[in-house]
Amino acid sequence: MNPRRRGTAAIITAAIASLLVAACGTSTNGNSSGGGGGTQTTLKIWDFSAEQVQFHKDAGAQFTKEHPNIKIEWRSITQADYMKTLPLAFQSNQAPDMFYWNATGLSELLDQKWIRPLSPDGTVPADFTKRWPDGSFLEGINMQDGKTYGFPFTENLYWGSGYMFLNKQVFQQAGLDVNHPPKTWTDLKNACAQIKAKTKAECIAAPTKGEDMQRIWYGLVSSVTTSSTDFFDYKTGKFNLTEPGQLKTFAFIQELKKAGYLAPGTNDKNFSRQQFAAGQAGIYFDGTWMLSVWDSQGFSSDNYVVAPRVDPDEGQTGAGGRTYDGNKYWVSSQTKHPDAAWTFIQWMTDPNGYFVQQYYKNAFGTLSYVDNQKMVTHPVLKQIMQIGAKPGYRVQLPEPLLKCPDIAKSKAYVNALTKTPDAEWEAMNEALVSGQSLASVGAAIVKQRQTALEEGLKQEAAGGLKVSMDCYTFPDWDTTKDYTSDMYKS
């Protein structure tokens, strides 16, 4: 090994170890002494929602008030560090009792041996599942062999990426009206030209560092083509990074950059968000979660509005994808307190309980087990709901396992994705900096993923699973409309 690389690796390892110690603290994962001389279980929960730290502290205190024998220790780690620290915690047998994770699904988490069922015996009562719409608990999504491992946390109509935020001050300085936002790609370029000409601000604060580029990407591509966040097209059954709709969208982003309409530099999302909030940029593309992020920074909703994503000039030809998998919180396989975790989960998902009431009071988003029309009061979140509810803004993606139940046992798709993870974002970053065509930079990635999927399915079929590429292909689907449950029977 190169000595310099070895030294760098040692520094990184030490840094992660330091983070793990800080996150774990000094308390044990056993019982700790509670007030009044009794015993009190400490339930450790980890996530990366920095803007929710005070809310989680308050929620934990309220839960303990109602359940004195259980203390909540809720820790938030920055997202980049969290993605390194949590795996290290499992490797060193220091994992929390519950954790937030949406980077991979049920199959991968079971393979990694990170999770156990929600309840101590693996079953959940009907009075728990009835909090969610029918079809929310599915084998292979949050259930395996009849045991329930997850629950939908965020709903998937309003919650998600693909919204355009406009800074009122910058728009006013440019002589633009936030109540008449850009609707097409040409409108966007014209607004950018005016912002550049009449203000000192950049037009679009667009992070382009690593996967943070997804902010502007989903703000544009979802009007062009409908695909999963894995760059997979369920209509054709192909990984589609280099398909025409994707290439068209990326070429437009390159055009914006060349015209000077993207803020200069290879910035991360935090820098771009602060740039927008400081009035240094007029437009920022992102998701529902931004309301609470900016509220926590003192940038109130009086200073910005939210608008729909912009369509290509010829009109909308795609939509944002909705999936069945809104599962975010999991019970750790290493917990010694499954009863306490189950008690907390039931409390957390009480539609009329403290957690829900405060979650909406703080405008953190929309939950899947709550009447959002009734609960939402934040003015911008109401705007988001109006946008998201528009027919065709988001559509339900087909779910292969509903077509082929054996997909729940298949590893082919997961294995295809684990080959050079984040390669699509890396290819975009490279092409944006170099000015190359995304087709040339991304071709090898698409070929690698497609070959892995097809060969993996063939091997599994030879081993007895009823799987094939047909399970991932829905040629008759109108990609601007929901793929509904009755379509699997046709």
Could you describe the 3D structure shown?
This protein has 490 residues and is an alpha/beta fold. It folds into two domains: 32-151 and 327-367, Periplasmic binding protein-like II (D-Maltodextrin-Binding Protein, domain 2); 157-322 and 389-490, Periplasmic binding protein-like II (D-Maltodextrin-Binding Protein, domain 2, 3-Layer(aba) Sandwich), CATH 3.40.190.10. Helices cover 41% and strands 12% of the residues. The chain has helices at residues 3-24, 53-66, 79-91, 106-111, 126-129, 168-173, 185-198, 214-221, 244-258, 269-277, 290-296, 338-348, 354-361, 372-375, 379-388, 400-403, 412-418, 423-434, 438-462; strands at 31-33, 39-47, 70-76, 98-100, 115-116, 143-144, 147-148, 163-167, 202-204, 232-233, 238-239, 281-286, 304-308, 320-322, 329-332, 394-396. The strands form five sheets. Strands 1, 2, 3, 4, 5 and 15 form a six-stranded mixed β-sheet that branches. Strands 9-12-8-13 form a four-stranded mixed β-sheet. β2 (39-47), α2 and β3 form a beta-alpha-beta unit. α1 (3-24) crosses α3, α17 (412-418) runs antiparallel to α19 and α18 (423-434) packs antiparallel against α19. The protein starts with a helix and ends in a 28-residue tail after the last helix. Mean pLDDT is 91; it is low at 1-16 and 23-37. Residues 1-22 form the signal peptide. Keywords: Signal. This is Carbohydrate ABC transporter substrate-binding protein (CUT1 family). It comes from Nonomuraea polychroma.
